[in-house]
């Protein structure tokens, strides 16, 4: 579930910044369950997979590289 969420963001946002609601929406598209999508976002946020700038998030570049390579 976490991997699907992360891949969904990678597909949707690439190197750009996004807010929490956009993150939830991207995961909801992948898994079709908004409550579960919110849990995925919260879990990945707790694992610090995001860079933060005020209310904006983006995926940590090294993790994005790993996802892109399938590792």
TrEMBL record:
Name the UniProt record assigns to this protein: Uncharacterized protein
The organism's place on the tree of life at top rank: Bacteria
Organism: Streptomyces virginiae
